[in-house]
């Protein structure tokens, strides 16, 4: 961590001490330790955004940076997945679950000093819910029928059907409130309402956040955060040892083991809702044949793959993990069996199959090389096409121009995307679509979870994708740090509570 010096430090210290938030239940030093509110925290993360525009850009790297840190919605989400007040101080939901009435906070400003109004809220949500919206989470807003401001502090959202996950949706990019300024360019800068504002983006290296002077809530417990985009675990470990960074936010068991017995560092393991997914283009022949998809799944030894990547992960049989309330064990849906894989390929007339695996260069080649080697054993030749992440987003994710692909999904709601035939997997199953619709309109969480459990079973039996493993959240940090989240950090990395011991 770095410390500000001179008059600026004294001024910033005064501002922060006047409204410093408690550090909560995060990891690190004892809560009673004296902390330095001017210290800059340097954090290693792996995935750099391709753009800063949360209105149009997909990617876990952008979510991790912006969500709750730079941009906010009417409501927020805690590390424990609880809905919390944000730009709305309170809300009410009608008995039929169709009308949401939000009381918008007074005295909130965007980072450029412009007051936030109910018109900004209405405009932002109207844009993300509009037909043809480019918002990465627009697909979650399809139940919205109308959005209106009934006075200067009240926004009413009416749904066309019950959506039990609607408040969750408002914590995503679809719910972020941005200024309704015509022609606003947010690709390389940001203008939110959160506790931090973007100070500088050195593309390919770092993004710096500094505390927002006009933030409406508790000021950050630190003097700013710098994200360092380092993809190589060895390089990250060296940077941590050398004091260039203070935290590795998600690493391998091998790297974590290097610091386990060193009192100068703290290693924590937390819950994860991430899946390393081998995606099949279900509309591409012969991957449109369930036998071929299942053969690919049965050809890959997931237990061995977990060992190859150094452990710290669990095998899963569908897009659900044990911490999900709708979890169901589907690991037996396509057990490792190379001989059965060969038989399925022969039955499908695909004994000499050749496929291209398109993957972002942000992922370790050891994974793709393992997949290619495993599939070669059953007669499937795999060509690995490693591309820039921006290219992957455009070609594979958006245009669906791929055969096989691999990506780490981090959103707990991703299971429901199998109910959207337009999603990049091109998976079209009417029963799944109905179950997802029923889950979304369920009157209770129990009913929702029952429907989603059925979805997990069906997509596993259909081999709609392959789920290679679910990585656990491993964090290594300087022991002077405290108050940082330890679970689900891939899509909810709250920064304002991070403290630095003096």
UniProtKB/TrEMBL annotation:
**Predominant location:** membrane
Q: Which GO terms describe its molecular function?
A: peptide transmembrane transporter activity
**Which residues does the UniProt record annotate as the domain Solute-binding protein family?**
82-409
Question: Which InterPro entries does the record cross-reference, listed alphabetically?
Answer: Peptide/Ni-bd, SBP_5, SBP_5_CS, SBP_5_dom
Gene Ontology terms: biological process:
peptide transport
Protein family (similarity comment): Belongs to the bacterial solute-binding protein 5 family.
Name of this chain's protein: Peptide/nickel transport system substrate-binding protein
Q: Which organism is it from?
A: Leucobacter komagatae
């Amino acid at each position: 961590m770095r410390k500000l010096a001179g008059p600026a430090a004294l001024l910033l210290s005064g501002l922060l001490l006047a409204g410093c938030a408690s550090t909560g239940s995060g990891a690190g030093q004892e809560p009673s330790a004296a902390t330095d509110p001017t210290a800059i925290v340097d954090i290693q993360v792996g995935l750099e955004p391709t753009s800063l525009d949360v209105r149009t850009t997909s990617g876990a790297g952008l979510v991790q940076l912006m969500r709750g840190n730079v941009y906010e919605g009417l409501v927020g989400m805690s590390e424990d997945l609880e809905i919390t007040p944000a730009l709305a101080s309170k809300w009410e939901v009608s008995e039929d679950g169709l009308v949401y009435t939000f009381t918008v906070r007074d005295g909130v400003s965007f980072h450029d000093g412009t007051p936030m109004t109910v018109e900004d809220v209405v405009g932002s949500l109207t844009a993300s819910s509009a037909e043809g919206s480019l918002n990465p989470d627009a697909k979650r807003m399809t139940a919205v029928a109308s959005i209106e401001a009934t006075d200067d502090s009240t926004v009413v959202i009416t749904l066309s059907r019950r959506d039990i996950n609607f408040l969750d949706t408002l914590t995503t990019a679809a719910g972020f409130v941005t200024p309704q300024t015509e022609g606003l360019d947010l690709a390389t800068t940001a203008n939110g309402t959160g506790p931090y504002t973007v100070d500088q983006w050195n593309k390919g290296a770092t993004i710096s956040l500094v505390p927002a002077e006009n933030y409406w809530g508790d000021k950050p417990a630190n003097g700013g955060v710098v994200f360092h985009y380092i993809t190589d675990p060895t390089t990250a470990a060296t940077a941590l040892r050398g004091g260039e960074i203070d935290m590795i936010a998600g690493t391998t068991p091998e790297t974590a083991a290097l610091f386990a017995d060193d009192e100068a560092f703290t290693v924590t393991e937390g819950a994860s809702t991430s899946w390393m997914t081998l995606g099949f283009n279900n509309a591409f022949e012969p991957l449109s044949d369930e036998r071929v998809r299942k053969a690919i799944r049965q050809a890959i030894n997931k237990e061995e793959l977990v060992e190859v990547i150094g452990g710290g992960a669990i095998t899963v049989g569908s897009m659900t993990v044990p911490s999900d309330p709708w979890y169901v064990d589907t690991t037996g849906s396509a057990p490792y069996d190379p001989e059965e894989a060969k038989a399925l390929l022969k039955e499908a007339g695909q004994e000499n199959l050749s496929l291209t695996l398109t993957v972002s260069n942000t992922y370790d080649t050891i994974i793709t090389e393992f997949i290619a080697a495993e599939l070669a054993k059953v007669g499937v030749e795999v060509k690995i096409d490693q591309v820039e992440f921006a290219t992957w987003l455009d070609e594979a994710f958006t245009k669906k121009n791929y055969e096989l692909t691999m990506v780490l999904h981090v959103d707990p709601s991703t299971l429901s995307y199998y109910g959207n035939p337009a999603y990049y997997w091109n998976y079209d199953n009417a029963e799944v679509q109905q179950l997802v619709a029923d889950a979304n309109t369920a009157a209770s969480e129990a009913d929702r979870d029952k429907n989603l459990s059925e979805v997990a079973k069906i997509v596993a039996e259909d081999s709609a994708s392959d789920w290679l493993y679910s990585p656990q959240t491993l964090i290594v940090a300087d022991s002077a740090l405290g108050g940082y989240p330890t679970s689900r950090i891939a899509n909810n990395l709250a920064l304002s509570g991070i403290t630095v011991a003096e």
